[in-house]
Amino acid sequence: xxxxxxxxxxxxxxxxxxxxxxxxxxxxxxxxxxxxxxxxxxxxxxxxxxxxxxxxxxxxxxxxxxxxxxxxxxxxxxxxxxxxxxxxxxxxxxxxxxxxxxxxxxxxxxxxxxxxxxxxxxxxxxxxxxxxxxxxxxxxxxxxxxxxxxxxxxxxxxxxxxxxxxxxxxxxxxxxxxxxxxxxxxxxxxxxxxxxxxxxxxxxxxxxxxxxxxxxxxxxxxxxxxxxxxxxxxxxxxxxxxxxxxxxxxxxxxxxxxxxxxxxxxxxxxxxxxxxxxxxxxxxxxxxxxxxxxxxxxxxxxxxxxxxxxxxxxxxxxxxxxxxxxxxxxxxxxxxxxxxxxxxxxxxxxxxxxxxxxxxxxxxxxxxxxxxxxxxxxxxxxxxxxxxxxxxxxxxxxxxxxxxxxxxxxxxxxxxxxxxxxxxxxxxxxxxxxxxxxxxxxxxxxxxxxxx
Amino acid sequence: xxxxxxxxxxxxxxxxxxxxxxxxxxxxxxxxxxxxxxxxxxxxxxxxxxxxxxxxxxxxxxxxxxxxxxxxxxxxxxxxxxxxxxxxxxxxxxxxxxxxxxxxxxxxxxxxxxxxxxxxxxxxxxxxxxxxxxxxxxxxxxxxxxxxxxxxxxxxxxxxxx
Lengths: 452, 162
Fold this sequence. Notes:
The complex is a heterodimer. Chain A is built from 12 helices and 20 strands. Chain A has helices at residues 23-30, 32-42, 50-73, 113-117, 142-156, 179-187, 190-209, 215-236, 311-321, 387-392, 415-435, 440-443; strands spanning 76-79, 85-89, 95-99, 104-111, 120-127, 137-141, 172-176, 240-244, 247-252, 257-262, 267-274, 283-290, 303-310, 333-334, 351-354, 358-363, 368-374, 380-385, 394-400, 409-414. Chain A is globular and about 75 Å long. Chain B is of the alpha+beta class. Helix content of chain B is 49%, strand content 23%. Chain B has a 4-stranded antiparallel beta sheet. In chain B, strands 5-6-7 form a 3-stranded antiparallel beta sheet. In chain B, a hairpin with a 7-residue loop joins strand 6 and strand 7 (134-140). The two termini of chain B are 30 Å apart. Strand 18 (380-385) of chain A pairs antiparallel with strand 4 (94-100) of chain B, so a sheet runs across the interface.
């Protein structure tokens, strides 16, 4: 597939296509701040004036674009006879990848800030199967990216056609997180408060001792959590959850935007968590384990379903993600009193329970959390016991899920019934595997509402 | 169901005692070298009695390691049930893993040079969860291969996607 014919705007078919011709420029643009810093800050001892440095920067950019253009020219993608996605790349060493769409776990369309300015977007299909499974098609024009996403999802769902499948499924917004709430919830962060306290203490110490060298301390204390918070706010700004036949569509972002589509039945586990400072306002954060979307560098692992929302909204969304499950109705059995000696803080909160659909575990004292894993998604079940636990007559039951933020476990159960809990979970999982029907996801259709 | 780690009805299948020998061969020379170095150093730098004491403690430690490895290997066991494979291990930190056949993505058999010398191999089960830590060390090679093929076939038959 060396002679790929670029066909921008043509139908998405089995013909190999290239990405958008501006791709090399956009890729270099992403690294522009780094290049400028390298040339002007690190290279400030170079002989010659500003002109030399400017020339150097231009040279680096030109070489970057040139190499990027070669890479772009040798890269193409198409759908093969089996309907799977193929990507051929490599300037000297050719490399061809096949993305098995039946194992598609989610699709993300993201628009990094600079690419967004010129109307480009990248498509990231996530396939189950470890870190090597990372696939990125960058950059496409925005309509092409959206069309490719629609085609990927349609083919993954089993729609096989020769013609273009560029019609995107209609969507309906379920939840929108108000910017004000997001800002307040971002500020209500233990690290930030802690950082501010440290800052105040440093200032007081500096004033009392008459030294002014503590500025660095203040910057470190306030700056590092601050950057994380600003990034979080920018990433989750205007967060919305929409429902479409393709699955749940999560959109967010202020400067860089992204839209993640999680097809029906791909949710492996759910965590509902409430940090200490959110308790008053009754907010929760919901995150998901989705196979394949783990371990992305520089990002929070897993999928955030809701960065911040009040409980009624959380419940409404959970009923979409886990149809037929009412987590409030699941009977939770608390951990025995002897667990105080193993987990003194958490003991009053530790509990687990199950119903016909899900296994639920509760824990966490400062950050309260509830983990939910559908029986049908149970990968394996483990019982563990350390020496101290054995002394107290305790054991923990772990329900293994795919990698992600959610690690469901019934910790510190009485050793006498830990095995019973585990065996019950194994039996429920076996029954659920036999009767699991993914199409159930689309069946529950309560009316859509927006958050006030 | 009193004991959290009670064997299933069919009982545990224990692994080959040759695993203990293989592990001792790896661990003991290290222990003995450390003991020797410490003893000589103490004899030269402090006093002969300190060296004798250290040597005795070291030998006790070596004996303890010998005994512990034996116990650990004896604690490893597995059992096949109708729908899943059970694996257990550990004395201090005990663990029991239940892996449904329908969830197995991959079954590996691995044997290092020492393992091959002793005719044993390690069977490793992989599910879509990284936390599933189901491996059975010290299986006789033939048994490991039989189990791998058997489990792979079962996994194929019962596969339930993710």
